[in-house]
Amino acid sequence: MSTVSNDSVGVRGVRLGLPLAIGAAFAFGMSGGWARGLIDAGWTPGAAVTARIWVAALVLLVPAVISLRGRWGVLRRNLGMMAAYGLLAVAATQLCYFQAVAVMDVGLALLIEYTAPVAVVLWLWLRRGERPTRRSIVGAIIAFVGLVLMLDILTGATVNGVGILWALGAMVGAAAYFILSAKADTGLPPIALAGGGLLLGAIGLTVAGLVGVLPIAWTTQDITYRFGTVPWFIPVLAIGLIATALAYVLGIASTRMLGSRLASFIALAEVIAALLFGWLLLGQLPDLLQMLGGALVLVGVVVVKLGEPTPAEFVEPVPDAASAPR
C-alpha cells in the first residue's frame, strides 16, 4: 500500500523544499502564456501539448535511466502508477489546460484548475464517506462564490462553457498530480517518475494524434507576443525545457520534501505566475470583479486545505550514503 509523504515537515525539509516548490510554481505558470501564442498562430492545443511533453521527455530520458541503474525492479513494480501519472497527471492535465487557454484568459483557466482541493474533498466524501470538516465546507462555499465572480456570471457576460469544461478537466488532472507526486515509498527517484511519466504521456498523445482522436496541426511561422515576434521553436523550447521538464522534477522533489498538504499551498503561487506571464506575454489582465473572484477562490482553497484532518505521521527512512541515488 502506498503511503503519502509525511506532512509533518521538519525545518530541513522546508529549507530545501520551499525554493524548489516556488521554482516549480513559476516554471509551470509560464506555460499558458507561451502556449496561447502558439495556438493563436495556428497550432492546435493537441500539437502544442504534444510538442511540449516530447521535448521534456527527451531531455529527461538519459537522467531518468541513469537514476534507475541497478533498480529496474522498482520500475517494473511501479509501471501502473507511472502510466497513471503520465496519462492523467501529465498528458490529460496539460491538454485540458491548453484547450482552456485557447478560448479563455490564462489566469482564469488556471484559477479554475486550482479549485482541485475542493474537488478532492467532495470526492473523498462521496467515494469514501470522509465527511469534510465545517472549515472545509466554508472554504468550498467561498471558492464557489469567487468562481461565480471570476466568470462574470452576475454581470451577464458571455461565459465560454467549453473553456470552463476544459479547465475543470485540468482540475481533475491537477488533483491526480498532487496525489501521485506525494507517494514517497515507491522507490522511484523524482527524475525517474517525471521522465517516465512524460515519455508515456508523449507516446499516448502521439498515438491519439495518429489515429485521429486528437487533432494535431502546427505551423513554422513566427509567433507574436506582447514584447515582439520570435521563431516558433522559442516558445516550444521554453514550454518543454522550463515549464515541463524542470517544473515536474522540481514539483515532485519539493512535494516529497514538504508533503502534499504544504506543497499544494505553495503551488498556488502558480496562479500569480500565470497572471504575471499572461500580462507579460499576452497583455491579459482580469478586471476588478474577476480579480476579486480570483482572490476569493484562493482564499477558499486555503480554508479548505486548513480544514483537512492532519494525516498520520509517516517518517520516510533516510538512505545511507552508499545507497542514495546520484
Using brief descriptors, characterize the structure shown.
single chain, 326 residues, mainly alpha, two-stranded antiparallel sheet, 14 helices, 70% helix, globular, disordered N terminus, disordered C terminus
Notes on the structure:
- This protein has a two-stranded antiparallel sheet with strand order 1-2.
- With 326 residues, it is mainly alpha-helical.
- α2 runs parallel beside α13.
- The chain is built from 14 helices and two strands.
- It is globular, with a radius of gyration of 19 Å.
Largest sheet, order of strands side by side? 1-2
Portion in helices = 55-70%
Detail the poorly predicted runs.
1-8, 312-326
Q: What's the overall average pLDDT, rounded?
A: 78
Give me the count of strands: 2
Strand content: under 5%
- How much is the radius of gyration in Å? 19 Å
The end-to-end span amounts to: 26 Å
Oligomer: single chain
H-E order = HHHHHHHHHHEEHHHH
Shape: globular
**Which structural class fits the helix and strand makeup?**
mainly alpha
Largest sheet: 2 strands, antiparallel
Number of helices: 14
